[in-house]
């Protein structure tokens, strides 16, 4: 199966909505959420990522989530793989490949070692087992692994099946610049869009993140293409206070889900334990952020 | 299903043997390994734990490993759960319950939050879904979660289904003392047996770890019961240099598998990536340790 | 010596300028820098903090820096203490007290333990030795100590000499709310102003940080007082892209010094090793940020 | 000033004794302690290291400690430098040089960067400022810096003034092997002697650590030289249970001081906050360890 570089633009990282006190997957909200993503012009979706709480879903739930997304919209999807070793990663990848079919734009695989050679072998093996393109996610705060931009670029250069890098090892702008210069693949910023302006300036192909107003990410990336930094800055400015508010360590996921709920996109804002809930002290301030958008 | 406290003594944490360059599960070696465990008098086995590389096995491989163990020996088994959230943990737990049947002495669940109330809810929910007893593993170096002995004891007291605690948050001896005093359940030391003498003195019910000479753990725990510290010390002393050698951060698993291979218990000593291999510089020294045992 | 709560507003955290390849303290630039701070209406200055590279200055250099600041402007000063134990902290504190005299608004002491009682004892002892008010800095990324807002509030309540808290343990807005509600002292946000809007909404008394455009911090805090969130938001918006750019982990100090240099406030932008330099790839983007301010 | 490689053998890392509730430096105990070190045949002493609580001493106290040691014994001394940047490190180094004079065998400088070139520049600069030989301490748990054995060897090779490396980045035996092979300088194990047998087998020149029975370290290193591994093992075995007991994270310093007190070498076992005290639950077990030695 030939693989293609991920298209430039915004890839929305999709939250998994849960309903009520049992926190069952809320498929109706999920359908509504991804339809909204499609309506605002994202390039594609990233499903079952860290912010999709994939590590807190059963296999059946992962399958259901992916099916709902594929049915609800016609966007290409990147599917996150939670495991960080070959055998269970391939097991997840096969499920994703089977459900997403030709809608699968890539499997998102986490950097699991600081050794470029070993990483390249791992990426190659996942591709070999599935034929799918590989999106490499460099996210040390989740994995505990720090490879550095030079090492990551070296690994990526060895694996033609890599179709994108998601650069989430701060400071990201310089990493985006190094990865873009050092590999032939598109590099996307994440981390809630905190550094999007600087990542675009460094050569990023777009954003792949879960900010609750994907409209803002799309506006920024579109403006960047047409008008460069001044246009992107002007387009993004209104969203930045909420971007920073949502980027709070640990509680960012809960804030985003509550924001999506208030926007009418989710029925409930519950997160699965052990993810922390949004502190009550922040409820009014979230309201102030949303009021002006 | 009523649950019983885990029996005192040594619970051997079983390595998963892999064969050749493909690193497939080596069922023959696995059967030989657990038969050896049984022959040296361990109380039970812990399968699919961190040192069993469970996080690097597919679902089918996990099932196969557990089946081999249950078929090969008649010991009770604790089965490790890799996931750290309810839905996927229950999925693993159901597989374990189905295969191990009445041989299941407990499900080993990792501390996944520093909040005692939330932890208690999680443990209770896993028990409720499966009926199985719960072995709580407090292992911050793997989970990144630090709860402290007081918080852990508070959680354990709220969940009658907890049948044991595996205390692996250093410094462990004081934690063992606090957990033993603060809960009604047996507390086991881990960490390769590094602090076994001090954990027993602090009230530990035994050892649950993967030291390559379980004979040494059994000798130490038996001697402790019959002769107290002086006897336990004398029994354990010959093994301590190897205990310390195997306790090396990161490479301990590879060292142990190589030791088991040289003992004739495993055919190969391979570990699955990204686990690091044993440095070649240590090969001779491992030989010196084994020579005298 | 009676102590007073720190005045609300912006406390500028002062960089220590170094000259040329020898990286000697550049007193002329330092004088110019603090005069600029005074001209833009800050409430006071924080000297010898983490961002002032105090840990990389000799005793004589610390004394010189403080003397220059006290001579150049008439603002009150908070003086940072680098040591995290009593004897060397008192040694630093005595130097600060001697030089700053009645200009000393407080000694900034870092949280050095997660135990509220022990922390209270430490703060009390530093006050007792010097008579100075205490600004408690909660900055886990530097100290490695995580106390939590509840524990910190408990410690602060026991020490009447505490005149302010600098809250830099993310997520900060909820922490600011808890500390403000739980103590009688003013709480200041830091971290480069990344969460200033949310910290003010949570009750912060102002900002104490080293953002290279203190004008922006002053405008934001002033607007908050007079017009609440909408005004503060409008005032702060133009600065947010640079705030985020400067907040990059590790290299933030170097970026800020280069920004100050381009503004004509510093002669050189050198940082002392092992602080990393600003990556060359970011030079143009810094220019874009500055161009519009 | 020409520098010489540190002599092989045991360098005792000296605790700083404190008296009573004020925790003043107890010079009488200090003199007794180092006299004991001399009497058991150590090669030299390491003063003002991490375990000497140097970071919790004032400048005057550091000077006093060093003076007492130099006066009480005729051993060569390595003097620890607490600061991790040039200017304050040189300030400490000058004090050490002045007091220790020709008794100074080396300044112990901590690895402060993962960049070998930058580290080499730092080490060279400290040497240049003082003329003293440099002992490089690689101790990530204290510094937060991980350079790796290859990077450290590269830095050491560039600085002829390096007279020894103290290897405390686990796993240490392979690091000792790599550093010994990759540099011309003697490499010493630390970490309380936990891996001493394996470090000697890997080529270590000896031990530099604060174990409360330096007799055990001396016996082990002497036996290694004369009889190789079997002799060293036999000599060290009786001490290993206490070595492991003392190696407990965080509380190891307090345990060691209490052990030294019970041995009659210190009057009190107090540690300065925020160092944690020895848990009461361990008091009896310490007694059991000491009884048999």
How would you portray this structure in words?
The structure is a homotetramer of 293-residue chains. Chain A has 293 residues and is an alpha/beta fold. Chain A has a single domain, classed as Alpha-Beta Barrel (TIM Barrel). Helices cover 47% and strands 14% of the residues of chain A. Chain A is built from 12 helices and 10 strands. Chain A has an 8-stranded parallel barrel with strand order 1-4-5-6-7-8-9-10, surrounded by 7 helices. A two-stranded antiparallel ribbon of chain A has the order 2-3. In chain A, helix 3 runs parallel beside helix 4, helix 4 crosses helix 6 and helix 6 runs parallel beside helix 7. The longest helix of chain A has 23 residues. The first copy, chain A, is globular and about 50 Å long. The N and C termini of chain A lie far apart (43 Å). The relative contact order of chain A is 0.13. The model of chain A has no long low-confidence stretch (mean pLDDT 97). Chains in contact: A-B, A-C, B-D, C-D. Chains A and C meet through helix 7, helix 8, helix 9, helix 10 and helix 12 of A and helix 7, helix 8, helix 9, helix 10 and helix 12 of C.
